[in-house]
TrEMBL record:
GO terms for molecular function: carboxy-lyase activity; hydrolase activity. Residues 3-249 form the Amidohydrolase-related domain. PANTHER family: 2-AMINO-3-CARBOXYLMUCONATE-6-SEMIALDEHYDE DECARBOXYLASE. Keywords: Lyase. It comes from Stigmatella aurantiaca. This is Amidohydrolase-related domain-containing protein.
């Protein structure tokens, strides 16, 4: 079974659940892991990275929940703002509602991975057996080394770093995932050579296929995994087996 482990849903024409499900069908992908999107307009990313536009800081968890209830092949991951004093309580509520992990967004919310609230969230995720998922923030406190440091402090919690770390090839992320049992890299937008080298060093059990819908198409990102010089069994782990185990989808 193939599972897209990284998609963002939003009540927008380009990021809707209906669009996503059609892409999954076109791609031959059976299931998807979905989290809130739309806080940044991915069609105009440079405007946000440069500071010309400000993001909508409210995660659309309700839209994700509604989408999952209507389409059981989708699995929800919640997003909370670590700067919110109620973030830990909110996450506990979402996990009680069936959300299967936590996504944090350092491009949207101006936190640091070393913040006390992030430590509380990491501890809570460990207690519930769900992963923390994030991309890099490309600023002090929210880069690969900061995420790795948090993962080392909470060995009972699993951590997934999106996009193979920082573009185009993050050797620090590769080295860390090779040496840590609880750190995994997600493949969307990753460079082919970086993915190949990471499989060699860390093994196929440490990589997770994702699409970064709606910015990329699931079939496009999946092709990268099919081009890897690995066995069919190893490919199956990357394309679904690893995330199925982390989210306990069995």
């Amino acid at each position: 079974m193939i599972i897209d482990a990284h998609a963002h849903l939003s009540p927008t024409p380009f990021g809707s659940a209906e669009n996503y499900l059609e892409m999954l069908k076109e791609s031959g992908i059976q299931q998807g892991v979905v989290c809130p999107g739309g806080m940044l307009d991915v069609r105009k990313m440079n405007d946000f990275v440069s500071g010309q536009k400000k993001p909508d800081t409210t995660p659309k968890n309700d839209y994700v929940s509604q989408s999952v209830q209507a389409h059981p092949q989708l699995h929800p991951v919640a997003c909370v703002d670590p700067c919110d004093s109620q973030s830990v309580a909110k996450l506990e509520t979402y996990l009680g509602q069936g959300f299967r992990g936590l996504m944090v967004s350092p491009l949207v919310h101006k936190f640091s991975f070393s913040d006390g609230t992030m430590e509380e969230l990491a501890a809570l995720c460990g207690e519930h057996g769900v992963p923390i998922i994030s991309h890099n923030g490309w600023r002090p406190g929210a880069n690969t080394q900061d995420f790795v440091r948090l993962a080392k402090a909470f060995p009972r919690t699993n951590f997934i770093l999106e996009h193979m770390g920082a573009h185009p090839a993050d050797a620090e992320a590769t080295d860390a995932t090779a040496s840590m049992d609880n750190l995994f890299l997600e493949t969307s937008l990753g460079a082919h050579l970086h993915i190949v080298e990471t499989v060699k060093k860390a093994g196929p059990n440490k990589l997770i296929f994702g699409s970064e819908y709606p910015l990329s198409h699931p079939a496009v990102e999946m092709k990268k995994v099919f081009m890897l010089p690995i066995t069919d069994g190893e490919r199956e782990r990357i394309l679904g087996g690893n995330i199925r185990g982390l989210l306990r989808l069995d």
